[in-house]
Amino acid sequence: AADVSQARGQWQAADAILKYCFDDKWNDNTTIIEIGPGNALLAKTLFDRHSISRYVLVDGPRQLDNAKKTLSNYLDRVEMYTPEQISNITDNFDLFISCHCLPETPNEYQEFIFKTFLPRSKKLMIEQTISSNLGKYVPNVIALKHALEDYFTSYKQWNCNDEFKNLCIRSHQNIYIAK
Known about the structure:
Layout: H1 7-22, E1 30-35, H2 41-49, E2 52-58, H3 61-70, E3 78-81, E4 93-99, H4 107-117, E5 121-129, H5 138-154, H6 162-170, E6 174-177
Parallel strand pairs: 1-2, 1-4, 2-3, 4-5
Antiparallel strand pairs: 5-6
Helix pairs in contact: 1-2, 4-5
């Protein structure tokens, strides 16, 4: 498995987004929201490969500063918000992304993110690689898994391949969810 903080790991995530969220056919002028982009390498990979009209990033100030450097060629289509500013984001999105972020947040924040953005997103990609070094975050990973199961049950309009959905939910090594 590739290190997600490196470009190779982001290429793999971008490939998965194209395959599972867009059936290998990217939509022009896609709008994206990403929770916890870190250094924004995934966003850069997606910008380098596809037409994106708007990309919203939500993370802490230090991470957003790093993201600004990474995305310097695309800042005209990027908006950045801290978690405290989330209420300012009121639009719908073509794609919701969160990679290696949500289990590191309190369960209440996970639930808030899900209730706020999942109903307003046409497709979603949540990826979490579980490793033993997560330590204290393991209960939040389990909570994330249960929250996703609840959302798949609650939101009948989600159109996700059942085999893929079941595989994703069962896996504690990689969780990829697409709708």
